[in-house]
Amino acid sequence: MTSRSVTLIDVARAAGVSKSTASNALGGAGRVSETTRRHVRNIAQELGYRPNTAARSLRRSSTGAIGLYLPRTGTRLDYYMKLAFGAVERAREDGLDVVLLGPHTASGGGLASRVDGLLVIDPDIADPSVPDLLDADVPVVTGERYLGGGAAPSGAVVCDNAASLTALLDHLAERGARRPALLAPGSGSDWAAALHAAADTWSRRKDVEVTVRTVPFAATPAQADAATTDLIATVPDLDAVVCAPDGAVPGVLAAALRAGLRTGADLLVAACVDGAAARGTHPQVTAVDLRAAEYGQACAALLSDLLAGTAEPGTVRRHDWTLNVRGSTTRS
Amino acid sequence: MTSRSVTLIDVARAAGVSKSTASNALGGAGRVSETTRRHVRNIAQELGYRPNTAARSLRRSSTGAIGLYLPRTGTRLDYYMKLAFGAVERAREDGLDVVLLGPHTASGGGLASRVDGLLVIDPDIADPSVPDLLDADVPVVTGERYLGGGAAPSGAVVCDNAASLTALLDHLAERGARRPALLAPGSGSDWAAALHAAADTWSRRKDVEVTVRTVPFAATPAQADAATTDLIATVPDLDAVVCAPDGAVPGVLAAALRAGLRTGADLLVAACVDGAAARGTHPQVTAVDLRAAEYGQACAALLSDLLAGTAEPGTVRRHDWTLNVRGSTTRS
């Protein structure tokens, strides 16, 4: 058996594991025990398996297009629109079109014959389409990791969302906040899970309790308003609210206004996703800028590299964020 | 010459006009004098030209995809995201993918070999890509009409934007407004041109002056804030502001707040495009709902019909709007 002819299936058979477990073990982007990972890697080395061969074997007669799958709830968030156009811009550099995939897209319908690869952004374990997409027999790059099981993606571009929330909480503490609260979605996505974990770690490290309220992934301003009103009523001396869902932060300001709390003075307010909503309020809201257009570019660039065989399957790239400090936390 | 073999070029030659003028004259969606239109139509009838033949001749070996072109400024407006997913949903019913075209897309790069047809949404005369796209040698459906010259689109889906602004101004007058103002983009798009014309007509019919301030097509809240602050300072007894650009209306409320005017009482506020921004303010803002997802569906449906030969080239379909009345105009 020459090294060129060794496939992922050969490795999986020799190791006595499934193809997806072998992929996970070699790729490094999925969940697999360290023992299994070492076992599969040893087998792969023995057989002379080369990941690049796998990457190339995934390539087929090019459709000239890649697919873009956004969260089902993402259609009203300008964050995803910026990300989409970033991906379009980068893909065109390689002569690739971006096909916008609707909600409820399954890998059926000949998806693999329509696109060379897929971008799956913020995959949520509650989304039934995601496992199908990961199994679509074309390279897949996820924006943030997928926390569910099944086939591992070929690559991922990730933000350090724990670090950005920690920076936000540090900033609020520095501005005098002693009783902060966080409005965050449940832990079905890598992003939300990181926020919960970071709030918990920060609370214990600083010995300052962060009250966490769960809201929908794409909470509306009205839902943020209701959650904030409840926080104001139940948390004594509440002095800061961090709102995770994009676009919902005006609801936090509305609740503060009704309660007679001055945003930026009596109540500090910050958002985990910068965008039109955070910039459109009065005062404007301090927010983490995830640089959506550049994020989309980075996802498309990694997929291009995987298709060209210039990135190894399992590649995970980091994407940087910045903190935009505005009037809602200046105590001016 | 049998009727089946007569092409648009045959008609153009016989009539002594260019292909695009012949297309405009027969299609009815473009600008051409009534004399020319009648002349070309007579020639077409004499030759036995059948528009359906032309529609079929435009069909080529299917790429399985249609292109979607959004305004260059549209990437941060959730209106266009909803519209895009509406188009994706409808196109999938016909087995068509939707390729998202980036800003600055030209008909070069083999566009006609990549897509069967194009959706060009809110084409603006200032956008240099639009004439190229209209000339891309595939059927084109525009969302709203194109006010520039060149090749006529194969079809259009239009809203009666004059009627919706008239309804909005009537509503404000009914709620007691005597000195309304309008923040609207310059007349480069069909939508903006209709708003200017409707404001002018309404002013003369009601003998109530509507003060119009020009703002960018995708004005930010800060730009709407600045324009409103200027209106408050310069228009005596200003009592209502209609904000046309999607997403900018929170700036109007911010300016009112700073000036000590209560929105919904001292100053009535309304928006020409409903969306997250209009629903996220306190009070929520009365707005025209253009039903973006359904608009996208209607555009994709017309393009499908043109590709299938079940709609005539030059078909213009109407799309309905509704008015959502909210706290910003209730005087409660």
Layout of secondary structure:
The structure is a homodimer.
Chain A: H1 8-15, H2 19-27, H3 34-47, H4 51-58, E1 65-69, H5 78-93, E2 97-101, H6 111-114, E3 117-121, H7 129-134, E4 140-143, E5 155-159, H8 161-174, E6 180-184, H9 190-206, E7 211-214, H10 221-234, E8 240-243, H11 249-258, E9 268-271, H12 276-279, E10 286-289, H13 292-308, E11 315-319, E12 322-324
Parallel strand pairs in A: 1-2, 1-3, 3-4, 4-5, 5-11, 6-7, 6-8, 8-9, 9-10
Antiparallel strand pairs in A: 10-12
Helix pairs in contact in A: 1-2, 1-3, 2-3, 5-13, 8-9, 10-11
Overall description:
The structure is a homodimer of 332-residue chains. By secondary structure, chain A is of the alpha/beta class. Chain A folds into three domains: 3-49, 434 Repressor (Amino-terminal Domain), CATH 1.10.260.40; 62-159 and 292-320, Rossmann fold, CATH 3.40.50; 161-290 and 323-329, Rossmann fold, CATH 3.40.50.2300. Chain A is 42% helix and 16% strand. Chain A has helices at residues 8-15, 19-27, 34-47, 51-58, 78-93, 111-114, 129-134, 161-174, 190-206, 221-234, 249-258, 276-279, 292-308, and strands at residues 65-69, 97-101, 117-121, 140-143, 155-159, 180-184, 211-214, 240-243, 268-271, 286-289, 315-319, 322-324. In chain A, the strands form two sheets. In chain A, strands 2-1-3-4-5-11 form a six-stranded parallel beta sheet. The first copy, chain A, has a six-stranded mixed beta sheet with strand order 7-6-8-9-10-12, with helices on both faces. In chain A, strand 8 (240-243), helix 11 (249-258) and strand 9 form a beta-alpha-beta unit. The longest helix of chain A is centred in the middle third of the chain and has 17 residues, at 190-206.
